[in-house]
Amino acid sequence: MERLSDINTIKKILTKHGFNFSKSLGQNFLINPNVCPKMAELCGANENNGVLEIGPGIGVLTCELAKRAKKVVAIELDKRLIPVLDETLSKFNNIKVINQDVMKIDLKKLIKEEFLGMNVVICANLPYYITSPIIMKLLEERLNLKSITVMVQKEVADRICAGECNRKAGSISLAVNYYSKPEYLFTVKRGSFLPAPNVDSAVIKLNIREKVPFNVTNEKLFFKIIKSSFAQRRKTTINSLANCLNIDKNELIEIFKSAGISLSSRAENISLEQFSKISNALSKGK
Ligand code: SAM
């Protein structure tokens, strides 16, 4: 079989199908032969489990996953890639390609129907234009996954892996840390893709927690508070929350005092657990 990560093979297949890259769909295909085997290995694909892939492109990672996993289901939005995938994946009988938008599909139902009795992991080179919404959907829907191994822009990987109380942290870091323990696996240079993007990438693995680390009475409010605090990260969190969520400043001062949080704290100084205390106190009055 021709090597799918070979740039000449990719060009030949794409020319045959009259395919042009769509920038708006985040189409940067891997041409570095070392990346996909490494990702497939590190995501934990094995003969007993199922792998869900998002955005297979021409199937370069899909093949490596199918060599190792019991079953692979790949969701691809671009219908022009379906005949390409029919050709490139024809040698495998454990792959199902679904032509849908990952943001619209019912993933709980899909996992239940397609991976009965299997442990499930996610492995994907994500389209950059919707990296964070996809990650949040995968986590918030509590999909009964073991892990999520994804390639994202290096800057996003650094932010997610920065953890809490860190200058690099953003609201995504805190949300991801609430549901999982993130791990930085390796960096992928921009020249590993066709066409080459303007930035480097990195592969990260989110090891899903069996239990969230502490009790949050209203998760919607909890994430709203985190988002609002980071949206105005230079302001003190008391001021950001008073502005964005229209909460009485005196009430916030009392809550911060009783939770032992400094009144001058900014979002990057507040831990996940402290955010949960703010949220739980505010949700009492609701
Ligand atoms: N996995 C391939 C690789 O590594 O070479 C392609 C990765 S490319 C960065 C992202 C892929 O996601 C593209 O094939 C694109 O068409 C697909 N995609 C973009 N938006 C999507 C969505 N909302 N749902 C499913 N697939 C999507």
Quick take:
With 286 residues, this protein is of the alpha/beta class. It contains twelve helices and nine strands.
Strand composition percent = 15-25%
Helix content: 25-40%
Tell me, rounded to a whole number, the average pLDDT.
94
Described by the principal axes of the CA atoms, the overall outline is elongated
Major sheet: arrangement of strands: 4-3-2-5-6-9-7
Number of strands: 9
Descriptive notes:
It is a single chain. The longest helix is centred in the C-terminal third of the chain and has 13 residues, at 219-231. The protein has a 7-stranded mixed β-sheet, sandwiched between helices. 40% of the residues lie in helices and 17% in strands. It has 12 helices and 9 strands. With 286 residues, it is an alpha/beta fold. Helix 8 packs antiparallel against helix 9 and helix 11 (249-259) crosses helix 12. Helix 6 links the parallel strand 5 and strand 6. The radius of gyration is 21 Å and the shape is elongated. The structure holds S-adenosylmethionine (SAM).
